[in-house]
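G.,

No rush on this.
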Amino acid sequence: MKTNYNQIMEETITNLKGKPKLLLHACCGVCSSSVIERLYPFFDVTILYYNPNIYPEEEYLKRFDTLKEIILKMKFKIKILEIGYESKEFKSIAKGLENEKEGGERCTKCFYLRLEKTAKLAKKHNFDYFTTTLSVSPYKNSEKLNKIGEVLSEKYGIKYLYSDFKKKEGYKRSNELAAKYNLYRQKYCGCKYSLKEALEYQNK
């Protein structure tokens, strides 16, 4: 039987005392919208924008601008940590996996790379929890993401907030908010390999 990560998150929230500090890894503005809306009442949220996989750099900056835009338009009082465009880190973990299909081993390593950076910074800056917006997408494996989060939680001694943000129509809500606030919506996951795959699919 599959683990219900949304239920685990709801149980965690029910048992919270005060508003713990949460470092939330954000992949883009659209995906972040419904996730922040859901977590904001219960956590003192800080966003980490760390996505060295995104290609090209102009796309990275466009998604970062969209993230800042949605936070401003939804009137969230949230800080953003942005540590620059570190594309070399993604290139290093993707080496030898260039021909993997979307959702394969390259993606798993990419999830780990971004979540590990989040865990490290959460520990360094004394956050209570860390998690990611990635599970809001129906194309992302929430079980894989949560297993990585669990491993990193144990490795760095920082609590991971289990989640599956696509549940309770989280993905639908993110699309509604994107339309409401006229947000830029990307047409591929992020890396140049996913861009190539998306273009090949469009040209069929």
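When you get to it, here's the other one too:
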Amino acid sequence: MTMLWIWLIVILVAVLLEFNSPLQLTSVWAALGGVAALILYLCGVDLSIQIIVFFAVTFVLIALTRPLARKMTRFKKTPTNADMNLGKTGIVTKIVDEELGVFRVRVENNDWSATTENKTILPVGTKISVLRIEGVKLIVEPFEEKTPAAVN
């Protein structure tokens, strides 16, 4: 009779974890494994077999359904208009905070807050290249024009 309660608790805990998990489909498989083990208990099957079946059912269900769950919960990044600035060049227009390494830049007639990877201030008038966007701030580096290789 003790195993009846243990399997019921395993099922209940797994279901409660599933309902309280922000990432769905994390413990439902253990609940179903617990149901399989509970059925075996009610049929009088040995405890070691119940435990083996519990783990086997849980892992088989994970293996079969996890790829589907991942596909369903994968979020596609939607590019924004701001992403069009990646790789573009601009110019430093104003120093905002020297301690934080924040300054303003103009990229294609748009004014942005910007910083460098190592938070160094670039002087006003410095030509920059946009590396990436973090929140509403551009991460930039000084723009270096590439000179064509010398031809022999």
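Residues 2-73 form one domain. The chain has a mean pLDDT of 85.

Enjoy the weekend,
O.
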